[in-house]
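Let us begin with a simple case.
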Amino acid sequence: TNSLGLHTVNNYENLESNTDVYFTDDTRIYSSEEGYYKSRFPLQLLKNSKVYLSDSKVNNELVSDIHYTYYDACIHNKGLGFCGFGKVRTIDFSTSYDFEITSIEERDPEYMGVTKKMEKSHRLSQNSPFEITEYSYSRVKKWNPRLVKQVQKDLLKDFTATILYEYDNYDYPKSIKTKRKEGSELIFEETRTIEYRHLASVDNYLLGSVVTNKHSKINHPAYNWIPNASIPEYDIEPISLNTYSLNSNLVQPVDPLD
């Protein structure tokens, strides 16, 4: 029970023995030469999660009823162990049957289990999703994949949102660019640029101190109804922060620009 009084009930099933929660797909193949294999092993899987307005747990107080299905558990036999699933499907049974939402996540266990694609559809038309989101990652660091592009398509409204990410040498996002289109027409652009101060010495190790954080936004004339004032341009001056010195037990204030 959380601080708002919502009561959550979770039910679990074992991957090794249950056939209602876990399935395999013969078309999904992992790189066995690199040590990745499909496997069944004793792992407790979240089968469904129900949220009620109170601990009485009566149906008319049901807020959500999410059921999970998992596909193709991946094991790495050269030291990484369990690497996740190839696909995870969720269905929310809390609404009427015609409006139950199914979400399908395609994942990549060989790249730390990142989500490659997500589709949302009504349960009665799972082959016709109303929303598709695709994710692209930098392949430079296999054990630390970085999201570089996200494309979300609303197929009902014909809207597309594209977000591009760039990172600095310490993997902090230094540029985030967003574009929104209606059909083929660009209606909105936003750029966020962040500059950091990184301290990486024996005496002081502090990464990610924000020096400047700038937003710029363009609403194209035909769509000037989009609010302009929500994200103004601004600079944030660096502030003094507390950090630890490796050769002292005392907490000392350190200026990020020193």
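The second case is a distinct protein. As before, the sequence precedes its structure tokens.
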Amino acid sequence: ITSSASTNLITTNTMSGITYDDKGRMLGYMSTNNEMSKPDSGASLNVFTTTARSQIDYDPATGQMLKYLDTTYSTATGGAYDALTNMVSGGAQEVKSMQGIIYDLQNRMTDYTESTRIKYHESDPSNKDLLYTTTIRNDITYDAATGQMTGYKDTIYSTATGGKMALVAWGTCTDGVKETRVMSVIKYDDKGRMFSYTENDTQYYIEGATVKLNVTTTTVRTNIVYDDTVNKLGQMTGYKDTITSSASTNLITTNTMS
């Protein structure tokens, strides 16, 4: 795969081990993805990622996918690529479950729950190197003309902020700090890449009857630019953030990255 949005990037995706149910729908597969910069580009990108998708389930009435489970290894997170098997193993293991998927009349996702479990050292049987995060995404909106996503609301719980995770295949993380993130006014450039957006992020934590944390931060990101001239890999190279917070209502912070 090549794209005008990243002219020096070559993406190769190999699918194998595809299985089907009795209605001819996919139940699972193995996918190995390689993102590599062109040899004469002057860039040095070469990342392999292997994902095993399983337990795909469908709505019996509409045939739409309702849930699935992904197990992923990548050379970007310590994994090793084996050219003979065309697979990555070792390093960090990421297990992601998608469930509760709801669609609009145009067959686009409007809601889902995503739970991610990351084990940093696969050989370590203890839980001390685990991170669990659950994201409940609702109210996804789309541009009527282009079909591009224009906004959504995420509710996030994580063991990194005091959350608890059910140790089952389709478990979700609850409790701890509740983070609500609303993305709106998402705009794109002519290559389909985000150009600007507004993010409202609220962190809330209550202990007993006492509110311990309740702060909202608004970030307006504009002028997002991408590398279209040097490496040409479609990587973000700059943006401008304008930030306000309920913790300091008379303060405006501007951060320019380049």
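The radius of gyration is 21 Å. The longest strand covers residues 210-226.
Keep these points in mind for the review questions at the end of the chapter.
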